[in-house]
Design goal:
alpha+beta, seven-stranded mixed sheet
Length: about 170
């Protein structure tokens, strides 16, 4: 498995990965999440053109997972990390997060942040195993508060969510 920057011709593959990865949310009764559409190509292109999108590729340079992020209050905020379920349990998500952490260090950022569901095994419990910790309300930066408010507007707060950080 190799990680490289996302290329322009990868963008629709990222959408396919996101759709496939979302289907597992059916198993935990989160149908709205399972059926949510991925980011539009123009949004993904924005991350790509800013150098904030990486893809894990398998045979024949075919994307099997990806991560997009952006700087928020001095940290690299992971907006999305997804792995195609056919490639699950191979530590691809962990490798993408490690790559993002290296990029964050290189850019002088202080860590990684993300928001996630608390009661989904491959969300908060997974990130905790990878060294992330839940941020308390007093630790939320203005940027993270804005992200959480936007998520609430989208209805994501129907399920418990948290902000997490790994220095």
């Amino acid at each position: 498995m190799r990680i490289r920057p996302v290329a322009a011709d990868d963008l629709t593959a990222l959408q396919d990965i996101e759709r496939a990865a979302g289907t597992v949310f059916h198993a935990v009764g989160m149908t709205a999440i399972a059926e949510d559409e991925p980011f539009p190509v123009d949004v993904l292109e924005g991350y790509r053109s800013q150098g904030r999108a990486w893809v894990a590729v398998g045979d024949e340079d075919r994307p099997v997972g990806y991560l997009i992020g952006e700087p928020v209050d001095g940290a690299l905020h992971v907006e999305q990390v997804s792995v195609h379920p056919d490639f699950a349990h191979r530590r691809i998500g962990e490798a993408l997060l490690a790559h993002a952490a290296e990029r964050a260090r290189y850019e002088g950022l202080t860590g990684l942040t993300l928001t996630t569901f608390t009661e989904v095994p491959w969300n908060a419990p997974y990130y905790e195993r990878l060294g992330f910790r839940v941020l308390g309300e007093a630790e939320l930066t203005p940027g993270l508060r804005k992200i959480r408010a936007h998520e609430a507007e989208l209805g994501l707060d129907r399920w418990p969510r948290v902000c997490m950080r790994r220095d």
